[in-house]
Amino acid sequence: MTTYEPVIGLEIHAELRTHSKMFCGCSADYASAPEPNTLICPVCTGLPGAMPVVNQKAIEQAILVGLALNCTINPTNAFARKNYFYPDLPKGYQISQYEHPLASHGWLEVLEDSEAGPQRIGVTRAHLEEDTAKLAHHGDHALVDFNRAGVPLLEIVSEPDMHTVEAALDYATKVRAILRTLGVNSGDMEKGVLRFEANVSVRPVGSTALNTRTEIKNLNSFRALARATAYEIERQAHLIESGGTVIQQTMGWDEAHGVTVAQRGKEEAHDYRYFPEPDLTPLEIDAARVDAARAALPELPVARTQRFVKDYALTPKEARLLNSETALADYFEAAVQAAMSPARTVNHWIAGELLRSVNEKGLDLEALPVPPGRLAALVDLVTGGTINANTGREVLGEMFASGKTPETIVAEKNLSQVSDQDALLVVVTQILADNPGEVAKYLAGKETVFQWLMGQVARATRGKADPKVTRELLEQALANKKHP
C-alpha cells in the first residue's frame, strides 16, 4: 500500500475589531445588536447607488498583522469585486482584494520542538474584504441577518507548506496568538470572529506534485480543524487506494458524525470573475506609514517567548505555552514581579494547578478570581515553608471559590505547616507503633511502604506536616529499627 503525504494550506478569516464596518458607518458590533437587521444601511445591504468608503482603521490593523507575519506591505493595493450569488451576499458580489493585496510574501515558523526542527510556512497574502450576512435555517426556510454584512474581514492565506495536522494546528494557533496580541481580533472562535478553512490534498511520499484538493469550510475551533483535516487526509488516501478520484470541491465538517461532507464544486479564481472595484480608488501606502506601524508593534509572541527563556530560565516549551495566550503571559509576568519565589516555581503553579482550575471551570483568563499578586503570595507561602504543596493546592481551590487571600484562608483554617521536629517525631513514633506489620515489610525490603507511612503521617496531621522534615524523621526512625 502506498504511503501518502498530506499537503495542507490554510485560509484564516479574522474579523477586525473596528467600531464601524469596512465600507460604511454602521456599527461593526453585530454581536450586541438588539435585533436582526438593525445595524444596516444602503451600503452594507447592497442597495443600488450606494457608495462604499474605506475604513482607515481596518487598513491600519491589517498593516500591523502583515508586518507581524513578516509580509511585505505593498505600496499600491486595490479592491476588486468577487462575483458570486448566495443569500448571505446582498450585493451579489463581495468587495475583496485579489491581484493587489495589502500584504504578501510573509512567513511563520511552526513546530520548533519537533525532531526535524522549526518549519517555515509561507504566507501568500493577507488581504482585506467584507464579511457576509448570517443565515439561520429553520426547516425549509432560511432567514438572513445583515448585521454582520460588511464587517471588516482579514483573510490570511498560507502556502501549501504544511504536511501534518500538527503543523496546521500550530500555524493556526500562532496566527491566533498574533491577532490577539495586536488586539485586532478577540480570537473567540465560538462566536465566529475567527474561522479556518483548510485546503487538503494527498500525494505519495517523495512526490512534489500538487494534486487535486478539497477545501473544508468554516471550521470554528482548533478541535474541528484537527479532526476535519485528519479525516479528509484519510478519506482521500483511501479513495485513491480504492481506485477512485479526488474531486475538487468544497466540503463541510459534520462535527456530530466526525466526517466531511461534500457541499458544492470548488470554484477557481476565474469563476468569481474578479474585476477592479469601480467605486474605490487604489490605496497608496507610503513607507512612512509602514514605518510608523512597525514602530507601534507590541512585543510579539515569538520575541516574548525568547525573552521568557532568557530572563526567567524557562524551557522553550514552557515559554511557548505561556505565550499561546497574551492574557496568560501577562498573568505570568505580573505574578513573577509580585513573588519572592523563582520564576520557574511561579510557572509551575500557573501551568499546573492554575490552568487545571481554569479549564475545569471554563473560566476566562482575562477575568480570573485569583489575581496574579495573590497567586504569587500563595506560591511564596509554599516555598517559604508556611504550608506544603498539597495544602497549597487546597488553598488555591478555596481562592477560586471564595476570592479570599491565601493568608486569610490559611489563618481561618489553621493550615500552617508543622515543621517542629519534636512534635512531628511524636507523630512518626506513633505511626510506626500502630503499624508493626507495615514496618516489618519495609525492613524486609519492600521500600514502597515508605510512601504509605509518609501518607499516614500526613493524614494524622491533616496534611500540615512538613514533608522534608517528616521524611528525615521517618528515615532515621526506620534506620534505628533496622540497626538498633
How does this model look, in words?
There is one protein chain. With 484 residues, the chain is an alpha+beta fold. The chain contains 15 helices and 16 strands. Strand 8 and strand 9 form a beta hairpin. It folds into three domains: 4-292, no CATH class; 299-412, no CATH class; 421-482, Arc Repressor Mutant, subunit A. Helix 14 packs across helix 15. The protein has helices at residues 56-68, 165-182, 222-241, 287-296, 301-312, 316-322, 326-338, 343-361, 372-383, 389-402, 406-412, 421-434, 436-443, 449-460, 467-482; strands at residues 4-15, 72-73, 76-77, 80-83, 93-96, 103-110, 119-130, 134-138, 141-145, 152-158, 194-204, 214-219, 249-254, 259-265, 275-276, 283-284. The strands form four sheets. The chain has a nine-stranded mixed sheet. A three-stranded antiparallel sheet has the order 5-4-15, with no helix packed on it. A two-stranded antiparallel sheet has the order 3-16. Helix content is 40%, strand content 20%.
